[in-house]
Structures are given as structure tokens and as C-alpha cells.
Design goal:
Layout: E1 4-9, H1 16-29, E2 33-36, H2 38-43, H3 52-58, E3 61-66, H4 68-78, E4 85-89, E5 99-100, H5 104-112, E6 118-130, E7 133-140, E8 143-148, E9 155-161, E10 164-171, E11 173-177, H6 185-188, E12 200-206, E13 216-219, E14 223-228, E15 235-239, E16 243-247, E17 252-265, H7 272-280
Parallel strand pairs: 1-2, 1-3, 3-4, 4-5
Antiparallel strand pairs: 6-7, 6-17, 8-11, 8-15, 9-10, 9-14, 11-12, 12-13, 14-17, 15-16
């Protein structure tokens, strides 16, 4: 039973405030309560507002206005409270924010009637160890990327899967992604598209020196370790493209399936294959073979 709906928005978008107010009034007209994230509440001159963790703990559903980046940010808070997310794109629909503005109220009406489906999207835990001590831990929906900094040398990255040596990459970096993240940076680096409902870990080297170093898909039960053997200040860890952590020589990054999931409400208006065709510009028309 949904009684409280949270709203998060990218306040840098010019129409975010307008649509927040419209949605808030609609929610209230349905006899429900609307709670706003702090920055959004301040942007439209309302109080109180709530930080993302507090918001997640109090509502039954969160509506996210923005693009995929805004939803990734929200997911890291919502996952700890099993709060489902509906992504509303303020531009054209994305891979994650799959409901357009003109579909918003129809989608919400269907949700309030219970006519909706939730996908549990796998997340990754990324843990950084330095001198055998944990110095950072993050949970991501898309990917964790070991990057080279402002140097021209390739990174040297020793990798281990479940205590078994895999290889030592000499590359510009290494992308470790979830199936959800397979259509993000990993795809740009030549990685495979993996259906988001499958659980696995995708390891994709960025511009490897050895051309036979290709992307590899690991079982979701795997524990993947990366040891950094490059020089001081030459490597960093980027999480969902939004958080950066400086790595030192000898640091070890451990990546594994998280106990948390992102509960993403699926668009009632289009399926995953339609999203792929649209976002990736795949051409062609149906021939009718699907009816055979």
C-alpha cells in the first residue's frame, strides 16, 4: 500500500521545479503525502526537506526526475531501504529513467492500482584495502572503474578471481560493471550488452596493451580483486561515474555482488528491447517473423 511518495530531482534541469510542483499537487490530490529531498525543497521554497537516506526510510516509492545520472545517485541511498524507484526523464528517456514526462501520471495511476512490475537490479560492492586495512567501501549500480590519472604510462593491474590468478592487465584502465552498467561506459569500451535481469560481473579492460585481453563475464558469485602496481598518483577508482577515490601503489580493490539491490519500476509503456533499439539507434523494421 503506497501512502507516501518521495521526490528527488536534478535541480540543475530548467523544468525540474515546475514538474516537481505539478507532481506534488497530483500526489496530494490522490490523498497521499509527498516528501521532497532537501535540495529540491529548498529550490522550490518549501520545508521540510529530507536527505536521501532519511527520505528512503520514510516513503513507499521514490520518483526521480532527471537522467540516468540522477537515478544512479538516488539508487545508492534507496537500496539500503528496499525503496522502489520510478525514473522520469526530463529529456528523452534513458536506460534507467524510462518514463517520459507525458507518461508520468498514467504510469503513477497504474502503480497505485498495483499494475506494475519491479526489477531487482544487481549492485556491486567495491572495497579498497591499503596495507591490509579497509579504507573505502562503496555500493554501485553501474560500475567501478580503475582509471589512469594525468600520466601517459599504462596502468599495471594484477587481477585475481576467487583466489585464482587471472592476468595482469597493462591498460588505460579496467571497468568492472553490473549488467545494468553494461550499456554505460563498458559498452563504449567495447564490452557486451547483458540483459539487466541477469546477475553477473563484467570485466572490461580499457585500451589494453595486449590485444588478446578481451572482456570477460564472471559468475555473480565471484570475488574479483585488482592490485594496483602503478606509480604514486597514477590510478584512481571512479564509482558510477560520480565518486572518485585516489589509489596508491599496492592498494587492492575487491569487487563482488552486493547484498543490496536497486528496485527499479519497469516502464509500462516499453520493454527493454525497445529501449535498446531507441537508445542505440538500431535500424530496421519488423518483418513479421516474430509472429511465426
Amino acid at each position: 500500500m503506497i501512502s507516501k511518495i518521495g521526490i528527488i530531482a536534478n535541480i540543475e534541469k530548467p523544468n525540474a521545479a515546475e514538474y516537481t510542483i505539478r507532481l506534488q499537487k497530483w500526489i496530494q490530490s490522490m490523498g497521499l503525502e509527498a516528501l521532497l529531498e532537501s535540495a529540491l525543497a529548498a529550490r522550490i521554497g518549501q520545508a521540510p526537506g529530507y536527505d536521501r537516506d532519511e527520505l528512503a526510510s520514510q516513503v513507499d516509492l521514490v520518483v526521480v526526475f532527471g537522467g540516468d545520472g540522477t537515478l544512479l545517485m538516488a539508487a545508492r541511498s534507496m537500496c539500503r531501504h528496499d525503496t522502489p524507484i520510478l525514473g522520469i526523464n526530463l529529456g528523452t528517456f534513458g536506460f534507467l529513467t524510462v518514463v517520459n514526462l507525458n507518461e508520468m501520471f498514467n504510469a503513477l495511476e497504474m502503480i497505485l492500482k498495483g499494475e506494475y512490475r519491479i526489477e531487482h537490479r544487481m549492485m556491486l560492492d567495491a572495497i579498497v584495502f591499503r596495507n591490509r586495512e579497509e579504507v573505502g567501501k562503496y555500493t554501485v549500480l553501474n560500475d567501478a572503474v580503475v582509471n589512469r590519472g594525468n600520466v601517459f604510462r599504462l596502468l599495471e593491474l594484477e587481477t585475481v578471481v576467487d583466489d585464482e590468478y587471472l592476468t595482469t592487465y597493462k591498460a588505460d584502465g579496467l571497468i568492472v560493471s553490473t549488467p545494468t552498467g553494461s550499456t554505460a561506459y563498458s559498452l563504449s569500451a567495447g564490452g557486451p550488452i547483458v540483459f539487466a535481469k541477469h546477475d553477473c560481473i563484467i570485466v572490461n579492460p580499457i585500451c589494453p596493451h595486449t590485444l588478446t585481453n578481451r572482456p570477460i563475464i564472471l559468475p555473480d558469485t565471484s570475488v574479483f580483486r585488482v592490485a594496483i602496481w602503478s606509480g604514486e598518483g597514477e590510478a584512481s577508482l571512479t564509482l558510477d561515474g560520480q565518486i572518485s577515490f585516489q589509489l596508491n601503489p599496492g592498494d587492492i580493490v575487491v569487487l563482488k555482488k552486493s547484498k543490496y539491490f536497486t528496485r527499479l519500476i519497469v516502464s509500462p509503456h516499453r520493454d527493454y528491447l525497445e529501449i535498446l533499439r531507441s537508445k542505440l539507434g538500431w535500424g530496421g523494421l519488423p518483418t513479421g517473423i516474430s509472429k511465426i
